[in-house]
Amino acid sequence: MSTAMNFGSKSFKPRAPDKGSFPLDHFGECKAFKDTFMKCLRDNHFDNSKCRLQSKDYLECRMDHQLMAKEPLEKLGFRDLMDPPPSQADKDSKP
Amino acid sequence: MLLPLLLRPSLCGSRASVLLPGCVRTLPGGAAARTLHCQTEDFLRRRLPARLVAQSRGRKWRSQQDEWRTRNKTVLTYIAAAGVGMIGLSYAAVPLYQLYCQASGLGGTAVAGHDTDQVATMTPVKERVIKVTFNADTHASMQWNFRPQQTEIFVVPGETALAFYRAKNPTDKPIIGISTYNVVPFDAGQYFNKIQCFCFEEQRLNPHEEVDMPVFFYIDPEFDEDPRMARVETITLSYTFFEAKEGQKLPLPGYSYN
What we know:
The complex is a heterodimer. Chain A is mostly helical. Chain A has a domain at 34-74.
């Protein structure tokens, strides 16, 4: 694919992350959430769609422990996982 | 025999031209050779004067010369204009090529119009499953143990995904690392957007410390609509850690430091 056209200096240009860099979790405060997420991934053959709840939990843990700037979950692409105020039942629904 | 010999030199001598000395000067050798030489010289000389006479006769010749001169001038002007045009084009080519690259997304340049609001509004393209494989490297002099915690993950465009790397400092002194990343295939790199990661900033690890490093990313939903990406099923994300010297900062692409 990328070798079909060779314009000489075709190279990858890295881009900065949108929200910057994660501070390091030196004290392992969110390690439990990370372990849950990794276990979910291993159980589901590394299918990300099935483990979105765990990833949301991990990011929320980071936000709680000042390891990540607080953002509304919609901005992180978890619009489908947010519980709408009136009913709690929609929490697990995924499109 | 002597008569022609007498005649030739006189004829040769009557024209005071450059050819004459040559004619007379020719070898003292055979008389036959000399007469032949003089004959050819004379023949040529006879030709020349006729043309000279006609040339000097004239308005016709002069106007032709003028015509040639103006024609030459026009041609030279055209050539000079073309040369200047080429130089100008080579200067204009730089921004034009940049525009073209941005419009067509050639060479992995960032597609214009990529903003963070897209994350909130994008919908996942469930049919297109992409495998993202992870690779971790360190520079030769970097002593961290750096590896991904999952070899691969299956994502769909439009859905945010989380992945982890682990880094351990096995030495007895703190080491500061700084990393950069690479996405293969290059063309797919423009659709690979990282919301947050651990690259381009100094990360300090204390002695014998081990940390988890997350990468939070998504693949742009437009990936599915790009015909050039139709055959792409695997994207590889590769991170490389380098040791950072004190106070050194990798230039962050797209950011300006103050």
